[in-house]
């Protein structure tokens, strides 16, 4: 049973470091006047995250999340280290996934289900990436088409939604 609290503590400390990195804080800077160390001191009266107790870790995580950090690693970070010729396609896949509010696992699932590609996104070749980008773009268009019209009543396609006095929904 002693391993569970330790693993929880390690996960929480990792989340604190990830969140601080997302906000641009340097967690490696040992200077007590650094932004990260000052934040730890202000929130929990410690200079190192390893000195935090359970409530201190929760308070620091809540503070970092209130400033816009997610505390989760960026699943798309691998794009910057990918081969230069694959980066534009990877960025396209990432942008479409973010637009339809899904993650990397969804994109890999689409590739697996629609095209039989049993690889992680990082390992796909250019032709597989093209197939995936096309499938995700079609999904995005479908979701945009079925989205409710914005305020004002004009849909993205430039048509007026169907109302009792407007048969068919066209202008």
Backbone structural class:
mainly alpha
Report the uncertain regions.
Answer: none
What is the strand tally?
A: 0
Please indicate the percent range of residues in DSSP E strands (runs of 2 or more): under 5%
**Gyration radius from CA atoms, angstroms:** 23 Å
H-E order: HHHHHH
Helix content: 40-55%
Question: What is the straight-line distance between the termini?
Answer: 68 Å
Number of helices: 6
What does this 3D model show about the protein?
The protein is mostly helical. About 50% of the residues lie in helices and about 0% in strands. Helix 1 packs parallel to helix 3 (about 55-65) and helix 2 crosses helix 3 (about 55-65). The longest helix has 20 residues, at about 5-20. It is elongated and about 55 Å long. The model has no long low-confidence stretch (mean pLDDT about 85).
Summarize the structure.
51% of the residues lie in helices and 0% in strands.
List the helices and strands and how they pair.
Elements: H1 3-22, H2 35-44, H3 54-66, H4 87-99, H5 104-115, H6 126-145
Helix pairs in contact: 1-3, 2-3, 4-6, 5-6
List keywords for this structure.
mainly alpha
């Amino acid at each position: 049973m002693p391993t569970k609290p330790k693993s929880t503590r390690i996960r929480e400390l990792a989340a604190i470091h990830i969140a601080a990195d997302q906000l641009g804080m340097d967690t490696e800077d040992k200077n007590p006047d650094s932004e990260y160390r000052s934040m730890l001191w202000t929130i929990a009266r410690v200079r190192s995250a390893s000195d935090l107790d359970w409530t201190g870790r929760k308070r620091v995580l809540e503070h970092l999340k209130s400033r816009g950090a997610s505390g989760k690693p960026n699943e798309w970070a691998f794009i910057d280290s990918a081969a230069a010729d694959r980066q534009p396609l990877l960025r396209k896949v990432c942008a479409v996934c973010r637009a339809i509010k899904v993650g990397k696992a969804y994109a890999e699932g689409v590739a697996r289900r629609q095209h039989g590609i049993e690889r992680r996104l990082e390992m796909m070749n250019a032709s597989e990436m093209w197939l995936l980008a096309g499938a995700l773009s079609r999904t995005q268009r479908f979701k945009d088409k079925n989205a409710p019209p914005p305020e004002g009543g004009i849909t993205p396609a430039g048509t007026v939604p169907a109302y009792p006095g407007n048969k068919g929904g066209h202008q």
